[in-house]
Amino acid sequence: MDKSAAGHPLFSKMEAMTDPVRTIAERVRTRVLHEGIDLGADSTAARRYADEEVRRYSERALAGAHAQLADEPGTARDVVAEASRGL
After folding, report:
1. 84: closest CA among 27, 18, 29, 16?
2. CB neighbour list of residue 9: distance below 8 Å, 6 or more residues apart
3. Which residues, including other chains, have CB under 8 Å from residue 86's CB and lie 6 or more apart?
4. For a tag site, which of 15, 21, 36, 37 has the least CB within 10 Å?
5. In whole angstroms, what is the distance from residue 29 CA to residue 77 CA?
6. CA angle 13, 18, 23 (to 5 degrees)
7. 24 within 8 A of 52, measured Cβ to Cβ
8. Nearest of 30, 28, 29, 23 to residue 69 by alpha carbon
9. Residue 32: is it exposed, middle or buried by C-beta count within 10 angstroms (0-12/13-18/19+)?
10. Span 47-57, pLDDT tens digits
């Protein structure tokens, strides 16, 4: 990869968008905020949302929209950790 491209702001945005954990975690955060869920009061909500969003991501991957996930349960765990940091 060209080093000048690596420093470009659009490349950074593209790189983040291709990272499944970050992409899915952002969808989980959006749902939590939109639905007004208190993760402290509902400790299973983050995991439930992560599982649902990983499943949606995988379904889109089967249709060719994304690369398939190698480890869905592991991705869901990583998504919960990432999403929890952002809230």
Report:
1. 29
2. none
3. 25, 26, 29
4. 36
5. 14
6. 85
7. no
8. 23
9. buried
10. 999 999 999 99
Residue 47's contacts (CB-CB under 8 Å, 6 or more residues apart) are: 76, 80
pLDDT in tens, 9-36: 544 444 444 589 999 999 999 999 999 9
Give how far Cα 83 sits from Cα of 11, 45, 58, 61, 65, Å.
23, 11, 18, 21, 22
Alpha carbon separation from 35 to 21, 39, 40, 71 (Å, rounded): 21, 11, 14, 28
